[in-house]
Amino acid sequence: MADPKGFLTTPRQEWPRRPVGERVRDWNEVYVPGALLPIVGPQADRCMDCGVPFCHEACPLGNLIPEWNDLVARDDWRAAAERLHATNNFPEFTGRLCPAPCEAGCVLAINQPAVTIKNVECAIADRAWEEGFAGPAPPDRLSGRTVAVIGSGPTGLAAAQQLTRAGHTVAVYERDDRIGGLMRYGIPAFKMEKRHLERRIEQMRAEGTKFRTSTTVGRDVDAAGLRARYDAVVIATGATAWRELDVPGRELTGVHQAMEYLPLANRVCEGDLKTSPLSAAGRDVVIVGGGDTGADCLGTAVRERAASVTQLDIYDRPGGERDEDTEPWPTYPKLYRLSGAHEEAGVLRTAPEAAEDSDARLFAASTLRLTGDTDGRVRALHLVGVDAERRAQPGTERVLPAGLVLLALGFSGPDQEDGLVAGLGLELEPRGTIARDAGFATNVPGVFAAGDAARGQSLIVWAIAEGRAVAAAVDRHLTDGTTRLHAPIGPYDRPMTV
Predict the structure, then answer these.
(1) SS3 of 306, please?
(2) CA distance 85 to 63
(3) Which residue intervals define the domain 4Fe-4S ferredoxin-type in the entry (predicted)?
(4) pTM of the full predicted structure?
(5) SS3 state at 458
(6) CB 235 within 8 A of CB 450
(7) CB of 152 within 8 A of CB of 174?
(8) pLDDT score of 1
(9) Separation of alpha carbons 360 and 388, rounded Å
């Protein structure tokens, strides 16, 4: 504990964002470059080095947060990077994309603003790359065993890196033309620039991991044949089966899933396309769904110069303070939060009929139907206000102009149309996810499942934790029943709730 009074004398200060008018003209990350390091040392000093650090329990990775906070406060960046990477393969990803349940569990958060754990994590990761602390770590010797990892999102990459470093020969199969999964084509560049992803991929290549892109297992490669070629298979395909909006007018042209829209915008940033065929430019956009994917669509539509943007959230607007009766510390509370995208929409006032403080969200709103013109193109979305039980409230119907409707309603499980599930004969849970036992093993010998494909839609920090845990299970399966790999969670662990 570098400064025993740090949490009493230093107020919370977060990584500042660039001015809205500047950042909506590009696709770079929203934060001010270079503005984090000058403030992160005193912020790390606010950590109280608790006797029982609940941030450990709130983080599924079990990150050693008080340890690397103290090291950053003492300006020992190398040691801080070592402690951070001991539990997290990709801290620059979580430092940018995770909603930080660790901060909700910070003991200081009982009655003060929490330590900026997420910012400190990101600063350590970035400094590690700048100073050369994040070099490849190839194994000393190979085990002679082979593993196929299907899917290259955070779960697949974490599992592959852990297993490669343990000495196994690992090949990652990805159906897209580039590695990264949702981090590549789902997460917009203004939330995480792809250079961070490319850096880790090159690190993994140098360690010995092989990558097979543009390969759909079950279609391009026979699933059963792949299983026969490898000593073990890890399924980490994510939950890519999107939920639908079952209302009249869903068939109209101009109504698309968020994951049809976002990848095209990312491909423009990658240089594959000059403009997106689903560009929001000049169109009235309505986003159905109040989560992070909806916010990603919002920020993208603003940058594409939409005429207006409105995001519908079926839930009531949350309060600004934790409800200690229903969401007591250290659980992660549902609060009103202003993401960078919402901040942009609020300042630009892109929502039609918006109040001066609008962030483009309409809360407690449910879609009734979509209507279009004579050519079958969507032109309006009809909605109604709902109560906490989602019951329509009389007299609350409204009509929003809509030339592009984006559905961001979440995902239910892995895609079953590519032939992987059927080809391997995998058993599924009633909700559509892949069934597995306490050791991450499926009903097919030698086949393991991890991440959203088995857990269901979750956070990136849980995805990486699943990847590390399944790697330990596979390593145990391939060796003498023991492993030295870190296994932070079990398949049935869940976030803290009351």
Answers:
(1) strand
(2) 9
(3) 36-69
(4) 0.96
(5) coil
(6) yes
(7) yes
(8) 61
(9) 21
